[in-house]
Amino acid sequence: MTAQSIQRNAERSALGTIRHGLSLTPEFRKGLAGTLILAVVATIGKIIVPIAVQQTIDTGLKTGRPDLEYITTAVLICAAAVVVTALAGYLMNVRLYKATESSLATLRVRGFRHVHDLSVLTQNSERRGALVSRVTNDIDQISTFMQWGGLMIIVSLGQLFVATVLMFVYSWQLTLLVWACFIPLMIALPRFQRLLSRAYTLVRERTGDMLAAVSESVVGAAVIRAYASERRTGERIDTSVNANRSAQIRAQTIVGFVFPLTEIVAALAIAGIVLLGVRLGLSGDISQGQLVAFLFLVTLFVSPLQTATEVLNEAQNAVAGWRRILGVLDTPPDVADPGERGVELPRGPISVAFEDVHFAYPGGEPVLREITLEIPPRTRVAVVGETGSGKTTFAKLLTRLMDPVGGRVTVDGHDLREVRFSCLRERIVMVPQDGFLFDGTLADNIRYGKPSATDAEIELAMTELGLADWVEGLPAGLDTAVGQRGESLSAGERQLVALARAYLADPDLLLLDEATSAVDPATEVRLARALEGVTRGRTAVSIAHRLSTAEKADEVLVFDAGRLVQRGAHADLVKEPGVYADLHSSWVSAAHS
Amino acid sequence: MATKVTSAVMRQGLRVLGVAIRTEKAVFTLAVLSSAVYGGMTVASAWALGWATQNVVLPSFAEDRVADGALWTGTLLIIGTALLKAIGVAGRRILAGLLQYRMQARSRRDVTKQYLRLPLSWHHRHPTGQLLSNASADAEAAWAPLAPLPMAVGVIVMLITAAVAMILTDTVLAVVGFLIFPAIAVLNLVYQRKLSPLATRAQQLRAEVSEIAHESFDGALVVKTLGREDLETQRFLRRAHELRDANIAVGRVRGLFDPMLEALPTLGVLAVLAVGALRLSTSSIDAGDLVQVAYLFTLLSFPIRALGWVLAELPRSVVGWQRVQAVLDATGSMEYGSQDLASPTPAALEVRGVSYAYGQAEVLHDVTFDVPAGRTVALVGPTGSGKSTLVQLLVRLVDPTSGQVLLDGLDLREVAYGGIAESVALVPQQTFLFDDTVRGNVTLGGDVPDEDVWAALRLAQADGFVGRLPAGLDTRVGERGASLSGGQRQRVALARAVVRRPRLLILDDATSSVDPQVEAKILYGLRDAAEASTVVVVAYRMATIALADEVVYLDHGRVVDRGRHEELVTRCTGYRNLVTAYEREEAERAAIEAEPVTGPARLEDEEDQEEVSA
Question: Any idea what the CATH number is for the domain that residue B503 is in?
Fold first, then answer.
């Protein structure tokens, strides 16, 4: 399983994660030194007030009569310093935002691209929402941390540092006293943070439950009414809404208790300063201005400690976010594009060969064994078999959505693994059963097969597929909006669009994976006839869900329990006893019973 | 867009806050009282410090002697005010949370109650995404200003106390304060006004980036099979860069105003020192007063911003509240009658001149047919012929625009609430499972013995896989049944219908995701078990139609013909074309194969020619 799923990265330490993360975002490191210097300058602004107070009291008021000239000079110098530090703060902020946003945008886009480069198996190892999270919320979390939490760490540490240095200059005894008051709190903080982090985790889980329950009242509106279960659903929703509320209030209560602790500790420190300070003053160890300045300096301890739990929480989230985005980037695409080194196939009908191909999902039983076959150019092949016989796996190997575990798949004599993706995806196109559409118009979706296609080309394609009537019957024709994931269309209509999209891409090998299973019979027959015309001159492989596809094919491949058990023309196969004859009779009875 | 703090938005915003205050009077009052304690004690703590400076610190330096009484009084004042302030802060924060989250939960409950109450036709008119965000993001936004609200009220208390304290201390110093604090408040207001639209835009872009990622990853298979990774990356990159630029714009405003808001109170303290020195020289104040005012400035500079936070949240709040209110104000509900439908025998269904329109577009026109008790009728018609709409009318999910649906001769509108669900079971085309156990999904909370649940599952051919689930009937199926396959979900939904032994069973293409072989077993089982039911089945597969006693053929919202399958095939062209499409195709093929010369051989010739010309 590990080979295919996205890397966990749990073994990497927090610092290691951050270092690795930063190494991927050179934009951030560039000019970081300058930003840090500006941050230090901005921090110095914090100790201007205590110094000004101390100078005013000790020098300006020394004689009992205020020395106005000295005080004015001191105040002006301090004011100039305030302006300079504010300016430094501005520049630092702008640089920080630019650097972090640029680097994170790069990381975001790289992550997005990498998700698409991962193999289908890896993509499916995780819920879509979780993948999306890795390039959205996780990055946002890092961004918040860098612009607020990370900055707070630097500013807070700087603030504590300059305050302590100045305190030490005034009085080492009082400095020790202040630190003695705050150290127990600092030791307790990580504990509070863990408490809080657990509380927030619970809030997130409860919010998820609540959203899921709420969505039932909307998505399940019809079923709820049909079964008159409004009351039961309402109760379930209320329960989850209330559980979410309780979790939120609990987290808020923890914050409410932890936050003012710092104020109490600061008051204890201030009281201590007064008690000890006046005695130190008696022995001449400290001046009165310095003592008063201490009262102001203590306030510099308050905000770093008040925000510390939140900063630690942010830091934890950011590291987790980094782990998740790096987890994506560190997962190698196991079905990789050979790129420049790859082979470019010339256009024209394609031949395919499977040479002793084996496939098993990671850690699972083999699902395809010893498949050896060739499909000559321009043949129409139908693949049949019961659910779980390996048909879809065969299709995924043929389109290189997965690589075989053993043996090889070749097109025109080249191993698929050596063919450039740009060429492969152009030449071989699969239409999956689930016709996924993008939010946009019908034309937008069809054009996805060939971005350069004109409206006339799209119309022509629809006509060739015999779908022009259907398009005309839609409210706005080709400009009809299909809705999110194509939900405004029926499942059958989505399949029609998906088919048109693939047809417009004009591949040399078209692979249909039960691509018209949800279309009504009359349309399906019409479509099948049209496809017969348009696939002429191409190689076509259809995974069949009904008889007539197999009957029309040049050759039928019969899969059973992961093996190719029969192959040949329908007319021959139906005569010999075996899997195909059984399938055939069950189809016939289903159609005529 | 209401991103600016206009006076209209202000008024509406205050009205929203008023709603919360009225609803949670006690909590709000306590929160404000706590916050007032906090505000008052903040000023008091500065005063305590000034008192200690004047009466303890300065005398001890001047007289080289510590006055013990004053020393302990000062200590007690400092610690006492801090303790009270801490209690105020804790109370304010906890109660503000209570206020905010209670209102939020209340809105969510009310909104979802409406969702459950309003008729399905209302749901049809509102996109799913919008309704979900009404209950989550909008309910959140509506009450977001409640978090800083008590703080803001406390700050006002704080400012008034501070103003009084300063005037009592020295009027000249007070003037400095009266200049600085309004300046901070105004600067903050400007800050929020500049920031708010930028922050909204960044938020909007964040949602768009997320939407693109969602859609793109959902369609990963299409992207991969068509090799459109570059195109998708470009699409994502454009929006990601817009988001980057929007965030940097936010950063510029923050970067400018944050340091200014820090610098302004510092400059205030410096002004206090300069002016205070002047006042000292004329002996108008003492040094303790100077320290007190300077300290006050230090303490007040941060909380004063809370006023801006409330204002910043108001525009978003107003929009959120209006959206929530729109749902709560939505009218229309299904009126129920008082009649009882219960009976042990199969129900007789009659559809009499029924029309139905979505908005202006009528999709069913004067549909009339009946299903005698105990009979099975297949509704057949091409995609978009109105079958699923008709089915919704049969269980009264919606009422017809005109005409009547009658069950045992009783108009569905006269039946009491719950009465229809008791007698009629619908298995819709789109399977919906609750995030509950298999049992919960089958019984829907009803008191059903396990044997009956298993029997229903057996009939739906679901007993096999349910038996293999880790916890059997008690296995949770996940959100919308995510842990089951499409076919498995359909079979559980089918069991849900048959377990209630309905008098009328309606299957709307309910086995489309099930293997044909399994489907056949289900259908035979139903036919044998359905003796106690009348059955309406939407289908176009022959195997399903074969079960029906009669067929109603629907096209373009009208009943084109009805009768036995054999009759319709011979006399109704549309029906024949639809249901015999496969057979006719086979027949044509057989005919072509009988004349090999004009068949495939000619095709091969054409291909060869194509190759030559290409």
Answer: 3.40.50.300
